[in-house]
Amino acid sequence: YAFTKNAQLKEISFPDSLDEIGANAFSYCYGLTNISFGSNLKTIGTGAFSNCKALTNIAFKNSLKNIGFGAFQCCENLEDILLPDSVELIGDYAFNNCKGREYFEFPASVKKIGSGVLGNWESLRRLKIPASVQEIEDNNAWAKITLIIEKGSYAEEYARQKGFKYETYEAVGR
Q1: Is this structure's pTM higher than 0.90?
Q2: How far apart are CA 168 and CA 130, in angstroms?
Q3: Nearest-angstrom CA–CA distance, 24 and 27
Q4: Is the model's pLDDT at 174 over the cut of 70?
């Protein structure tokens, strides 16, 4: 809770030496508009940036592995999210109640997607899930969109079991 509810905080630039941002460290920083992540950041903790309502975009460096529970939940103006090819775990509700886009693509490094990760994105219509994903928690909000998934992947089985609408594609070079 180091900087929670800091109304004066507008920008943050993390040093390359930082490898983890703790739980709720910057939650409710309503004026926060810009975050520059260091090149060795591996973990963003639970609720670290939740309710930072002025954030509109975030881009991570290629070191990030884990995004915690509700890390960016209720960042209601967050529209552009660029996840690096290093992310493996996206915790429950990580990007729940964000503005989002019509199309979102998880990087090919992702192995687990938690519950409600992209929940309440009113504009989301299409979501690409890579074959690397081996576990998906409950994401009933996806029932209203089209999933784009590799034929024969875990994600295809998940979509079939849930009765979700999906399109498949063939992997190139396999």
Answers
A1: yes
A2: 11
A3: 5
A4: no
